[in-house]
Amino acid sequence: MEEQLPQNELDTAERPDTGASIDAGLAETFTDEGSGENDPYKGMLWIKEKFEEYRLQSDERMGALRVELDRRVATIEVLNEELVQAREKIADLSTKLEKNMSLLMNIHKELDKSLVADTPATIVADPSSTTPEAAIGGSGNHTENV
Question: 92: buried, middle or exposed (CB in 10 Å: 19+, 13-18, 0-12)?
Answer without folding.
Answer: exposed
